[in-house]
Specification:
Distance between the termini: 19 Å
Strand content: 5-15%
Number of strands: 8
Strand order of the largest sheet: 1-8-7-6
Shape: elongated
Largest sheet: 4 strands, mixed
Structural class: alpha/beta
Number of helices: 9
Radius of gyration: 24 Å
């Protein structure tokens, strides 16, 4: 089983790394760009009101980005735009998992593809299918890490007695039903996300309440994704992109911390 778990974890990590920005960005010819010498206020008045950021073009070169927000009276697009700077541009080959934290505070990034800046990625792109797959894989990776920690700490299903009587009964019932259909799965695979959370919580030092709260939030996020619900609110604040990115970062942090715990326990045996 250990070999299979290692292969599964490697597959999840490869998936997280192989989904790139080019899968969610908007590129020419679908991109709406602002001409650098146009009147900013006049051009914005006739541009698509659904868009708030526009790459600025000087002939064929991208020279900055124009934001709808702000007072642009009397300015050309070039005068009103945000000029190119470090941190504003990402590669089309950047993993989506690396982009997500960058969109926590900033609403957009210009995208470099094949030596040219010809794309734009915004916070609204976080709702696209590739992001759903990346986040779902990350939370699945976390659940697998929790399962690994449980199996290391309590080999041979000795963890089972740590669960409540009610949870034990439900797992036994599920196991019986599956065996009746010719399926004989390891007992640990019949546990719920919350079972693994409760078992792993025993090892999380003084941050048990934080661990439980953040893991519950990640379970809810996973359920929203699996049921095709909207999981990112584009509004500001704790119901918006900031909250989503915080959850994403907490998943990565707990993967790292629980993996270290499992390694430490293995070293003592």
């Amino acid at each position: 089983m250990a070999g299979r778990d290692a292969e599964f974890e490697a597959a999840l990590q490869a998936m997280e790394a192989s989904f790139h920005v080019r899968l969610i960005g908007t590129f020419e010819s679908d991109l709406v760009c602002a001409p650098a010498e146009a009147d900013a206020t006049g051009w914005l008045a006739i541009s698509n009101p659904d868009f708030d950021q526009f790459p600025v073009k000087q002939v064929d070169a991208t020279v900055g980005i124009l934001l709808r927000q702000g007072d642009h009276t009397g300015k050309t697009v070039r005068d009103a735009m945000q000029p190119l700077r470090e941190g504003l541009i990402v590669s089309a080959d950047m993993p989506i998992a690396d982009l997500i934290p960058q969109l926590r505070e900033s609403h957009y990034r210009l995208v470099l593809r094949g030596g040219r800046i010809d794309g734009l990625v915004t916070q609204s792109d976080l709702l696209k299918l590739p992001v759903r797959l990346v986040v779902f894989a990350l939370i699945t990776h976390l659940e697998q890490v929790m399962a690994d920690l449980v199996s290391v700490r309590w080999p041979s299903d000795s963890w089972f007695g740590e669960l409540s009587d009610g949870r034990q009964a439900k797992i036994i019932k599920k196991e019986s039903e599956l065996r009746g259909r010719g399926m004989n799965l390891p007992k640990l695979e019949l546990t719920e996300f919350s079972d693994k959370r409760d078992l792993c919580k025993q090892f999380v030092g003084c941050g048990k309440s934080t661990f439980e709260r953040e893991l519950d939030s990640l379970r809810d996020l996973r359920d929203q994704i699996s049921h095709a619900s909207t999981f990112v609110d584009s509004s500001d604040g704790k119901t918006g992109v900031v909250a989503f990115v915080d959850k994403f970062e907490s998943a990565k942090r707990w993967i790292d911390e629980l993996t270290k715990l499992a390694v430490k326990i293995k070293a003592t045996k």
